[in-house]
User: What shape does this take?
Amino acid sequence: MNVLCLGAGGMGALAAETLAGFEEVGRMTVADLNPEAAQRVAAACRGKATARAVSVEDAAALTELMRGHDVVANCVGPFFRFAVPILSCAIAAGVNYFDICDDPEPTLAMLKMGKEAEAAGITAVIGVGATPGITNMLAARIYPMFQKVEELHAAWNIEEQDADKPEALTYSAAIVHWMQQCSGMILEHRNGRLQEVKPLEGVELYYPGRGTRTVWTVGHPEPVAFSWSYPEIERSSCFMVMPSLTADYFRKLSKQIDAGRLTLEAAGHQLVDEAKNVSFLDHILAVISGIFDHPRLPLFFVVAKGVIDGRKATVAATVKANPPGMARSTGIPLAIGVHQFVRGMVKVKGVAAPEKALDAQAFFQELAPYCTFPKPAPNGDILDIVREWK
Assistant: This one.
């Protein structure tokens, strides 16, 4: 099959390079607004790829470029600006579509485009990255354990990173996304329906076998996807795990954004500058804050509450190891999702979240060889699922 990879940044590069290693993937096109970036990524794709320059804001040119490909792998963000228009182009071109959309509003808008995509005969699987993506597949893995799921939460932890090779915080579409989803109103599933609520609410979360700590609500696609895929659940949130001092700083930025004193972009630059200029004392205070905020929680995880065998139960799921770095943790799952499609494993038509479109067992089996942080899991068994009757 022929694949069009949109976006030649860090995540797009990892997705393209991983896809190039699959024998079922034939011709590839790497497209980006920056032709030099597209060329660099294409050159790393084992002779399978050519480079093209394209602006995703030029709908006619993008639609024409999509034609002649079997599937689009979209890594162009921020997704609250570009996801819906790019999917619209894929529907117009009649080309299947995968992305790493990490914003809830376009996630909901794209799920509502399901009938349009189905009428065009295409499959669109959205949010196949780390979070969302890995988190959705963890949910798909544990959901069948329950007779009834009452709560289903996803979380990501900014405290956990490679201490030997920490990733420097740099300004990017991901940073703008962060500011977007920590300000204004966010979508959560409460009392059986999606609702708009304020972000950065402190919630006491219990993780089986580890204990309880305060985590913070943020806008993310998982509650939207879970409410769509599992409409019978009563509550779903996405949490950010971070020291309380960090949460206080995010709240300050959020208030300035909401008051119109900072744009999302300006807030993002301020966050990056602050991270570069953090003092040793600030670092010590953050460490102290982290001690009091314990227990430590995994990098990505889900927690579900409900009924198993007629008894109240809480189940948590994570992976014992991850691909090192956020670019790999996001780009590689996208490639694996597309790989399932080109192998004929994805049967749904229309628009779906990963938990409804992909095979969870096969997903984690294929992901395992890439998971080396903090160390490879023995025998490639990367899943860590714990249950308590509670």
